[in-house]
């Protein structure tokens, strides 16, 4: 369904190569979100250990890839907004809810996040009382 919506609204790249990159980045953000969701249901005695695990994996495995992807562009793939960008925004916002300083060493992701939050529809969605709920 997400691929259909992305294709319908021009968020899925201009060719197969861009689609493959969008899929790669999207899967990476979903992998990151999976470990965050597991933390949310963790038992109280294991929650801090799991939080440390999330921080380590995010800083060493996930965020450097996204930082590099944003090195030469405002977006992860090509020069336009894609589904991967929307997923990255959600993943980084969720990370910041549980680890507020996690992006301190990732300036490209921070700048990306600010650009994304300034988009009118995303800005409206992030306002208090919107459909977005914390984890």
UniProtKB/TrEMBL annotation:
It comes from the Eukaryota. Gene3D superfamilies: 1.20.1050.130. Residues 15-135 form the GST C-terminal domain. Pfam families: GST_C_3 (PF14497). One of its GO terms (biological process) is glutathione metabolic process. InterPro entries: Glutathione-S-Trfase_C-like (IPR010987), Glutathione-S-Trfase_C_sf (IPR036282), GST_alpha (IPR003080), GST_C (IPR004046), GST_superfamily (IPR050213). Keywords: Transferase. Its EC number is 2.5.1.18. It is an enzyme of class 2 (transferase). GO terms for molecular function: glutathione transferase activity. Belongs to the GST superfamily. Alpha family. PANTHER family: GLUTATHIONE S-TRANSFERASE, GLUTATHIONE TRANSFERASE. This is glutathione transferase. It comes from Ctenopharyngodon idella (Grass carp). The lineage of its organism: Eukaryota, Metazoa, Chordata, Craniata, Vertebrata.
């Amino acid at each position: 369904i997400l691929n259909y919506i992305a294709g319908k609204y021009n968020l899925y790249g201009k060719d197969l190569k861009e689609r493959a990159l969008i899929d790669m980045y999207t899967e990476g953000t979903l992998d990151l979100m999976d470990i965050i969701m597991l933390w949310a249901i963790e038992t109280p005695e294991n929650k801090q250990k799991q939080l440390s695990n999330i921080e380590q994996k995010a800083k060493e495995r996930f965020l450097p890839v996204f930082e590099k992807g944003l090195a030469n562009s405002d977006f992860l793939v090509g020069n336009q907004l894609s589904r991967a960008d929307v997923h990255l925004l959600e993943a980084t916002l969720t990370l910041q809810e549980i680890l507020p300083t996690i992006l301190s060493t990732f300036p490209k992701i921070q700048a990306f996040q600010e650009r994304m939050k300034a988009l009118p529809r995303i800005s409206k969605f992030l306002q208090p009382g919107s459909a977005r709920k914390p984890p």
